[in-house]
Design a protein that fits this description.
Shape: globular
Low-confidence stretches: 8-30
Number of helices: 8
CATH superfamily: Vaccinia Virus protein VP39
Radius of gyration: 17 Å
Strand order of the largest sheet: 5-4-3-6-7-9-8
Number of strands: 9
CATH architecture: 3-Layer(aba) Sandwich
Mean pLDDT: 82
Length: 202
C-alpha cells in the first residue's frame, strides 16, 4: 500500500491504494480491553504492538503519560517496561482496585489538571529529570493539542508521541509546537494506517 499524506487525510483527500476501504482495517480500531484486568485501554488492538515497538526502539529511561483515563495504557506500559519509572497525569481518580495492579515504587499517579493552566508538577518533573532519556505520550481526551504545550520542556533526544493524530489533533496546529523535533518512525505509522505519531527532539 502506498503511503498516505497526513494533510490529504485532513482535507478529506485519500491518496495511495485505490482499493483501500476503512472497513478493511477495522481490526486496528476495535477498542482493546486489557486481557487480565479487563480495564479499557481506549486504543485499537492493532495499535499496541506498533506503539510498543517504537518505544522499545527508542529505549526510554522514564515514561510520562498525559491522560491516564482508566489506567489501561499505563498498565500496558508498566508490563512491557517493568523497571522504568512511569509518571501518569489525569484529573480523574483511579480506582483502588486498579492501583493495586501496579508497583507503586515505579508507577506514580498524579491527579493533576494539564490545561488551561500549565501544570507546575509536570513542568518540574520534566525539568528535574532533564538528563534522563524520556518518552512522553499524550492522549488527553478531546483536548489533544494541550499535550503539545509541554514539549518545550523536554530535553534534546527525548521522544514525544500523540494518539488520534488528524482525527482529534490538527497537524497544522501541532506543527506550531514541533519546530525543535523531527519525525520518528512516521512512515511505519502511515504504512500501517495508524493515527499515532512520534517525534524526537533535536
Amino acid at each position: 500500500m502506498s503511503i498516505i499524506s497526513d494533510r490529504c487525510i485532513k482535507r478529506g483527500i485519500r491518496l495511495g491504494d485505490p482499493s483501500y476501504k476503512h472497513h478493511e482495517h477495522k481490526h486496528l480500531y476495535k477498542s482493546k480491553v486489557h486481557r487480565k484486568s479487563a480495564i479499557q485501554v481506549y486504543h485499537g488492538e492493532g495499535y499496541i504492538p506498533h506503539i510498543l515497538y517504537v518505544i522499545r526502539k527508542f529505549s526510554p529511561e522514564m515514561i510520562v503519560e498525559l491522560g491516564t483515563s482508566e489506567g489501561g495504557m499505563t498498565l500496558i506500559f508498566h508490563e512491557e517496561f517493568r523497571n522504568i519509572p512511569i509518571h501518569t497525569f489525569d484529573v480523574k481518580e483511579i480506582l483502588p482496585s486498579t492501583l493495586a495492579l501496579f508497583d507503586r515504587k515505579l508507577v506514580h499517579f498524579h491527579r493533576e489538571s494539564l490545561y488551561p493552566r500549565e501544570s507546575s508538577v509536570l513542568i518540574d518533573l520534566l525539568s528535574i529529570n532533564k538528563d534522563i532519556k524520556k518518552f512522553m505520550y499524550s492522549d488527553v481526551g478531546t483536548a489533544k493539542i494541550e499535550g503539545f504545550r509541554y514539549v518545550k520542556y523536554l530535553s534534546s533526544g527525548d521522544l514525544f508521541g500523540t494518539h488520534d493524530w488528524i482525527f482529534q489533533v490538527d497537524p497544522d496546529e501541532a506543527e506550531k509546537y514541533l519546530g525543535d523535533f523531527v519525525p520518528f518512525e512516521r512512515e511505519l505509522m502511515r504504512k500501517e494506517w495508524l493515527w499515532t505519531r512520534f517525534w524526537k527532539k533535536k
